[in-house]
């Protein structure tokens, strides 16, 4: 009657597989598969892994579990449990390996001589370095002393106390540093297609249509005048502050920008339009 290991080996060989092939497919180490086929179950890591590995290997080879379960239980009962760390038998008496003796006659004297020689070399090297460093420093200072003979005399004179800066005179009409605004810069962000005309100091800086998500940034200006053809489709940020909505979609607005703020106006009506007073500021944003 063949053993369990022999049967599994025979099944593997009939399928034309090597132990390496089986190990790759089952993810079980090749040495454990070899131990199973050889019937050397004490090479496996304990009863639990013995059962698990044998069942996986048999299932891989097409052997049903009921065919091997009885013999597997018998084998598992014979496998010695793995030793827990600390349960290894201690070696006593002559079982301990002999302690090698490295002491030699005169070893202490040779060690002292070597140590003394090392200390001497270190002292000599330190002395040579100190002498070289002293000569290098004195030689580098002599030309400076000859070139600036009065430097030592000036250095010996007492240094007057630092003078406190006089307070700056106040200027009427000028605020503090926190209140002074810098030059104008602004950014236009189109949310819809918007026609824009930008002028500053009588010069046209830009005229055209901004497409959705297109931006336009200008800086270093004193003032600027914007004519916006689609007020609801444009966002304006002036000196880092959004000025809010300037009108509804499709409305034409004139926006006056300066470092102090923004002024939104309605465009002037042409001659022949309905009579009425001149346009008043729609909003003022500082």
Instruction: Tell me the helix content.
Output: 25-40%
Low-pLDDT ranges = 151-156, 158-180, 274-286
Widest sheet: strand ordering: 3-2-5-8-9-10
| pLDDT averaged residue by residue | 76
Major pleated sheet: 6 strands, antiparallel
Q: Could you tell me the strand content as a percent range?
A: 15-25%
Q: Please tell me what the overall shape is.
A: flat
| Rg | 49 Å
Helical/strand content category: alpha+beta
Number of strands: 10
Oligomer classification? single chain
Instruction: Give me the strand/helix succession.
Output: HHHHHHHEEEEEEEEEE
Distance between the termini: 102 Å
If helices are DSSP runs of H or I spanning 4 or more residues, what is the number of helices? 7
Features:
single chain, 286 residues, alpha+beta, 434 Repressor (Amino-terminal Domain), six-stranded antiparallel sheet, four-stranded antiparallel sheet, disordered C terminus
Describe this structure in words.
Helix 1 crosses helix 3. Helices cover 36% and strands 19% of the residues. A hairpin with a 2-residue loop joins strand 6 and strand 7. It is flat. Among the domains are: 73 residues, lambda repressor-like DNA-binding domains (434 Repressor (Amino-terminal Domain), Orthogonal Bundle), CATH 1.10.260.40; 85 residues. The strands form two sheets. The protein has a six-stranded antiparallel β-sheet, with no helix packed on it. It has a four-stranded antiparallel β-sheet with strand order 4-1-6-7, with no helix packed on it. It is α+β, with helices and mostly antiparallel strands.
């Amino acid at each position: 009657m063949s053993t369990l290991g022999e049967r599994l080996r025979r099944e593997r060989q009939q399928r034309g597989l090597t132990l390496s092939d089986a190990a790759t497919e089952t993810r079980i180490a090749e040495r454990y598969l070899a131990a199973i086929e050889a019937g050397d179950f004490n090479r496996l890591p304990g009863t639990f892994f013995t059962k698990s590995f044998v069942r996986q290997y048999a299932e891989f080879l097409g052997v049903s579990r009921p065919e091997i379960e009885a013999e597997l239980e018998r084998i598992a009962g014979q496998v010695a449990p793995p030793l827990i760390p600390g349960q290894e038998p201690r070696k006593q008496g002559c079982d301990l390996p002999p302690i090698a003796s490295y002491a030699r006659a005169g070893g202490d004297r040779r060690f002292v001589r070597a140590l003394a020689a090392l200390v001497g070399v270190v002292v000599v090297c330190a002395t040579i370095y100190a002498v070289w460093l002293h000569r290098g420093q004195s030689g580098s200072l002599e030309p400076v002393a000859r070139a600036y003979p009065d430097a030592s005399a000036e250095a010996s004179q007492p240094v007057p106390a630092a003078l406190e800066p006089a307070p700056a005179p106040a200027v009427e009409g000028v605020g503090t540093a926190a209140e002074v605004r810098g030059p104008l810069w602004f950014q236009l962000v189109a949310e819809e297609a918007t026609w824009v005309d930008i002028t500053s100091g009588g010069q046209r800086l830009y005229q055209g249509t901004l497409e959705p998500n297109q931006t336009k940034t200008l800086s270093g200006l004193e003032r600027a005048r914007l004519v916006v053809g689609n007020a609801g489709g444009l966002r304006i940020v002036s000196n880092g502050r959004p000025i809010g909505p300037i009108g509804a979609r499709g409305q034409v607005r004139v926006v006056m920008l300066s470092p102090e703020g923004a002024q939104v106006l309605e465009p002037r009506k042409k001659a022949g339009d309905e009579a009425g007073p001149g346009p008043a500021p729609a909003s003022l944003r500082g």
